[in-house]
């Protein structure tokens, strides 16, 4: 099933593998930092995959129908950089020489958006595994929706190399269980089973039967000698032939294979081999000690020819896509928009308006908004970690993603928060606009993957409901205290805590406007009803704005400011009314999105929060730490919650207009 | 193997089960909030376990050798409360009537330290599973260390009831894999296999072969009818007989069994049955509609007799322990101290001093401190998530915990951060003083379990190394930015970021002084060397102190203050020296532990940070959000890091004495 027209001879394979290995050890040695063992041990399996199976075009890294390759064991980055360079991606040898240096294209761990050909940022183990599952879901979903008889325009595999460490991580376990359930037949993972981790042999902690576990998840599993190219190729071919199960191919390897004194030891994992051992390794493989970063002529020629074949493959697809476009112009236009990560204008237009008056929980408002939007947004796809109804993402009219219904929009993630967030990253990397939901308190379980979404600037949307102690009876394990602020601290993640249904619509508008290259958005919504206010805005792109203040009062004459978010906005407004009755002119600022506010020009920020007005009380049912950025005093909660009805907790914890007034009146 | 002398007749079992069920549905109905389905479905298995196997003494809930019972499916709290009441714990019926109300002993999810007999706070799924693994490790470790021929003073089982949701969570998967590896033969989990989760039937997302997966982990697995008392009892007896494998007994149950219209449906999971269905349920089981909270006389009598037997069991152990004490007084004294959670004075005394001068990474200083302490602290037990050497917890002279060496102090957790932190909670709940280690950036993976440690006020110690961008080449995936501050936000968790080796010793002293009832401590240490300063203190119980200021300057005359932590302390000190040379009198405050500082009297805090001195620049290589609490301006980093040598990043990111001076001079 080779995709290159040329046959890969055993000699060529061996030479390519040695080239990869020596590039890796030279780069790590020059940087005096890095992980040589993994690239050396995994070079065989990677070479087989990349020369015989992987369908991509180094000249056009964003070709939509390319196979995806995930290096989940991101510490082996030099393996990927060597492959990218040798395959013809825009990664000159000079960059390999600048491995792990400031501004290079070869950072310590692969970074999406930074280096052409890197599909996903990896390093935190297990997360690449989960992202690959998301990519495979995306591929199958798009194929199911857009392919037509005679037109298979979406049709590719998702491959990964995963390590022991990946397979020990819970996030990978969660994603693996779901991948098996969904029967993702085009997901093929090569397990670099080298029996070594940083602390020593894996048998000190990892003696489970990995293949039996994956078989229990519903995966197709095989074991091969990871240095036998033909065996690897046969296993990959069998995995491709297995259409109803994801595949795990355990490749038994020797870490740092080729290093006479460090092969098979944890010493080779995370430190340079050292000059003497590099020399010994090259000598043992019959490789010249100098020059470093040597690429034999035969490899240069062979790879150039392979590249031409890969390009021809991509061009054939372009022709097929042109034919598809002629036959199915509407579908093709929609699919092209997905490839381009365009957000349909109609999805914004579909966001409903909420008239003021009445009261509704923002999670319920969110449910209405989502229901309205999905009709106009083909790839607004997502679900919940088993709390769909509670979170307000239970799209009753939409169907669930499954093997039988691969085009289904709703993903039942199960009680697997971290896996869900990791999968969302893979969906976003593949043109899907994912939303994923759980209780805000369980954002703790997803932080690893949320941070990666932020680092990759992916527009994942997190719907996080039950956003404060107002949750009530479920008690402190289910009541967020520190979570909103802890999320605000993640760079490039934007956090919206809307004050009513109108601001919830605005939060979705803001989230939808964020694109690949911007970053993720969290929308924090309430369990309890909130009044829909007259003054709230349907656009919060400004981040914060003046909600209310006594009429006719100049900014300079203000007595002070209440800055509120979410469920406390109406309380702050009522408190300001009371204070006005007492002769104090207090402005209420609604601040649903700090990050958007901080992106405004200084003039606007100073208009909303005039620097001269220093008596400022923040009002938020969460930790006060952090509010010092805007407020001189804080009305919040810095201890764990308790189990009781929400209204009672509000009385006990001081969340009423009266308590806010009292607090304000005590301020200097 | 019944522990109660009385035989549990089928009639008694049926009556007890119906009593549990009706207590649960009455309490949920009265609270108008809660989860009736799980207690009803799991009442059979719980009744079998509690009447025939569980060895405990309701009159003395802290009896050290009691069997542990974990309700990992914490939403089924009424099952546990019913059992505690019926068994004779200090939980009056009046408290069951106040289910989920303010100040009751019956919060929505079970809370350790709040209700006698609750072994662990549960609710966030999967975490109770992991805690139980920690308890079983603790039991085996103490048994291995302290039991003597003819004296089995530590000898009990750890049981849990776990749900589908628990088994979907990655934290449980990680803990299960380690439990299998460690061959924890006295760990027995009953799986409430009711095939229902909140979003519907589990087959929408959870179709893996759970038992095959656990068999792959090395567990003993069986499946029984979860409503067949004899089958359950037989399975538990077999699990007890299996001494080298943990056991998972899948009990196929019907959620809300006994409810004519809601049994077997997700409708019964998280909402009251409703008055009509409660009546129908009672009618179907031949139970009077009124009074509610009815406990038949036969149950009252039967449970009283069981309680006498349980008490006799505990008293027999007391005698056995007295004999042990006579035979092995030194061991008995040590074990008693463990039961009492006493920290040996000698462990504090063993903490080494570091003379000023020279430079050492605080992770390496931490390694020396830990090595010195363990000799004097029998149950200072822990390890790393596969980064022992990097984190500075690689105790070369200590042995690893394993089936062959169950007394081993070092636990190789594998790349399983969340499982590690969850297991640490179980260790701490069982008299062990656990320390667990990983990179600070991966604290994200453990937050769920860290938060529970804080909520339970357990003295777990987190050693978190590589604590800033100074990590260098590994790049942004491995460089914490927001993490120190995000940890500071968790209530009752104390975070220490020591500025040199001396403050690291002080951080360990502070951590060790925290006890059950106080809470956990995180110690953040560096990868890179830090100079050992003259002025740093060996005791940081004050949280923050004046490190340096120009001699002879009155506090009121200060020009300003630099407040620094960790690796930036020496930079701030150098900056203050430079500023002094420029005629500016600037104090340097070292603030290694915010929470300890906040616990000081106001006078002390005002002495360190005189309110009149408002020009205050914080200096910390992390997010600035939060520093507004103490500082008027912040020298920090609010964006992701990059891959390059640490020194180069410091130049690029402005972390040098010169850059701090420049920043300070710009302040108003």
Write out key terms for the chains shown:
homodimer; 668 residues; alpha/beta; Rossmann fold; 3 domains; 6-stranded parallel sheet; 5-stranded parallel sheet; disordered N terminus
What does this structure look like?
Helix content of chain A is about 40%, strand content about 15%. The first copy, chain A, has about 675 residues and is an alpha/beta fold. Chain A folds into three domains: about 300 residues, Thiamin diphosphate (ThDP)-binding fold, Pyr/PP domains (Rossmann fold); about 190 residues, 3-Layer(aba) Sandwich (Rossmann fold), CATH 3.40.50; about 120 residues, Rossmann fold (3-Layer(aba) Sandwich), CATH 3.40.50.920. In chain A, strand 11, helix 17 and strand 12 form a beta-alpha-beta unit. The N terminus of chain A is likely disordered. In chain A, the strands form five sheets. In chain A, strands 10-9-11-12-14-13 form a six-stranded parallel β-sheet, with helices on both faces. The first copy, chain A, has a five-stranded parallel β-sheet with strand order 1-2-3-7-6, sandwiched between helices. Chain A has a five-stranded mixed β-sheet with strand order 16-18-17-19-20, with helices on one face. In chain A, helix 1 crosses helix 3 and helix 20 packs across helix 24. Chain A has 24 helices and 20 strands. The N and C termini of chain A lie far apart (about 75 Å). Chains A and B meet through helix 6, helix 7, helix 8, helix 15 and helix 16 of A and helix 6, helix 7, helix 8, helix 15 and helix 16 of B.
């Amino acid at each position: 099933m080779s995709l290159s027209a040329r046959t890969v001879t055993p000699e060529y394979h061996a030479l390519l593998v040695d080239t990869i290995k020596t590039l890796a050890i030279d780069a790590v040695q020059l940087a005096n930092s890095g992980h040589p063992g993994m690239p050396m041990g995994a070079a065989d399996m990677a070479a087989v995959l990349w020369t015989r199976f992987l369908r991509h075009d180094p000249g056009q890294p964003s070709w939509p129908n390319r196979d995806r390759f995930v290096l989940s064991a991101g510490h082996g980055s030099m393996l990927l950089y060597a492959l990218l360079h040798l395959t013809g991606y825009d990664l000159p040898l000079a960059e390999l020489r600048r491995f792990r240096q400031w501004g290079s294209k070869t950072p310590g761990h692969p970074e999406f958006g930074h280096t052409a050909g890197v599909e996903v940022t990896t390093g935190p183990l297990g997360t690449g595994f989960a992202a690959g599952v998301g990519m495979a879901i995306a591929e199958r979903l798009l194929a199911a929706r857009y392919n037509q008889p005679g037109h298979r325009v979406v049709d590719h595999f998702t491959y990964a190399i995963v390590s022991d460490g990946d397979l020990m991580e819970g996030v990978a376990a969660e994603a693996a269980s779901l991948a098996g359930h969904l029967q993702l037949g085009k997901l093929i993972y090569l397990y670099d089973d080298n029996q070594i981790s940083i602390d020593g042999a894996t048998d000190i902690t990892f003696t489970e039967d990995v293949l039996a576990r994956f078989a229990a998840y519903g995966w197709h599993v095989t074991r091969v000698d990871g240095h036998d190219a033909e065996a690897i190729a046969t296993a990959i071919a069998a995995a491709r032939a297995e259409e109803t199960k994801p595949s795990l191919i355990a490749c038994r390897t020797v870490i740092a294979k080729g290093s006479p004194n460090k092969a098979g030891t944890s010493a080779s994992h995370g430190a340079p081999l050292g000059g003497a051992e590099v020399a010994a390794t090259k000598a043992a493989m019959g490789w010249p000690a100098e020059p470093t970063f040597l690429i034999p002529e035969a490899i240069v020629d062979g790879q150039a020819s392979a590249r031409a074949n890969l390009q021809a493959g991509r061009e054939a697809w372009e022709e097929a896509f042109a034919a598809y476009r002629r036959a199915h112009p509407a579908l093709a236009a929609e699919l092209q928009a997905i490839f381009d990560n365009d957000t349909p204008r109609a999805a914004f237009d579909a966001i409903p308006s909420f008239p003021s008056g009445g009261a509704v929980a923002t999670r319920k408002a969110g449910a209405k908004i989502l229901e309205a939007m999905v009709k106009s947004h083909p790839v607004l796809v997502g679900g919940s970690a088993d709390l769909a109804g509670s979170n307000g993402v239970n799209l009753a009219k939409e169907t669930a993603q499954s093997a039988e219904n691969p085009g289904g929009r709703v993903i039942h993630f199960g009680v697997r928060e971290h896996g869900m967030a990791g999968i969302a990253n893979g969906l976003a990397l593949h043109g899907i606009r994912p939303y994923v939901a759980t209780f805000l308190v369980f954002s703790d379980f997803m932080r690893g993957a949320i941070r990666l979404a932020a680092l990759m600037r992916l527009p994942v949307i997190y719907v996080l409901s039950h956003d404060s102690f107002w949750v009530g009876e479920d008690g402190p394990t289910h009541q967020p205290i520190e979570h909103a602020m802890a999320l605000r601290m993640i760079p490039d993640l934007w956090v919206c805590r809307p004050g009513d249904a109108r601001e919830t619509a605005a939060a979705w508008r803001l989230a939808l406007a964020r694109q690949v290259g911007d970053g993720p958005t969290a929308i924090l919504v309430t369990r309890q009803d909130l009044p829909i206010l007259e003054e709230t805005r349907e656009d919060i792109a400004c981040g914060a704005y003046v909600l209310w203040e006594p009429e006719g009062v100049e900014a300079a004459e203000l007595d002070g400011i209440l800055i509120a978010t979410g469920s406390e906005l109406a309380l702050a407004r009522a408190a300001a009314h009371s204070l006005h009755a007492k002769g104090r002119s207090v402005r209420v600022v609604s601040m649903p999105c700090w990050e958007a506010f901080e992106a405004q020009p200084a003039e606007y920020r100073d208009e909303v929060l005039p620097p001269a007005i220093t008596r400022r009380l923040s009002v938020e049912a969460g930790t006060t730490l952090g509010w010092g950025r805007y407020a001189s005093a804080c009305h919040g909660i810095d201890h764990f919650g308790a189990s009781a009805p929400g209204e009672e907790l509000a009385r006990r914890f001081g969340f009423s207009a009266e308590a806010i007034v009292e607090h304000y009146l005590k301020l200097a």
